[in-house]
Write a structure and sequence with these properties.
10 strands; globular; two-stranded antiparallel sheet; about 160 residues
Length: about 160
């Protein structure tokens, strides 16, 4: 392997690790916005494929499956952090991911939300959006679509009438 190729490989590994760390940091940030008094974590995907070379089916599901304690309602959340927009669109998933999320929501018959942090740091995003999966028409969302789901990035989540806010 040539020196240039080795350097590229090292850079790719560093970028991938940094990206994974941002994702983990944002997930933890989002979890902390769910008050334990009102929400329990039913499942938290651990992304086992990062540790192994084998495909892990459970990694295809959402990051979090939560239960609203007072009503016993279950819903799921996929967490995504993006540093910025690209061509005035919020690129939040790959097309295949979006398809898997839709299948998961349909098969499990539970509400599915995409919580996106935008700008700032993963542990302190400048902006945050809580978008119902059925409102995401594609993996790249125009500002007119995602901005109507903006919420304070510091405010605790609440569940009212079957809707996450």
């Amino acid at each position: 392997m040539g020196l240039l190729r080795k350097v590229r490989t090292v850079i790719e590994i560093i970028f991938e690790n940094e990206s994974e760390q941002k994702g983990d940091d944002f997930e933890k940030y989002v979890v902390d916005l769910f008050d334990e008094k009102y929400f329990s974590i039913v499942q938290w995907t651990t992304d086992m494929a990062r540790k192994h070379t084998r495909f892990v089916e459970s990694d295809c599901g959402p990051d979090l499956v939560l239960r609203h304690r007072p009503t016993n309602e279950i819903f799921c959340v996929e967490c995504k952090f993006r540093s910025n927009l690209y061509k005035d669109h919020l690129h939040w998933s790959a097309p295949r991911q979006l398809g898997r999320y839709r299948i998961f929501a349909k098969d499990n018959e539970i509400p599915f939300y995409v919580v996106i942090g935008l700008g700032g740091k993963a542990r302190k995003p400048k902006r945050m959006f809580c978008i119902p999966l059925e409102e995401t028409g594609s993996p790249a969302l125009p500002s007119g679509l995602f901005e109507k789901f903006e919420r304070s990035s510091k405010k605790k989540f609440f569940w009212k009438n079957g809707v996450l806010k």
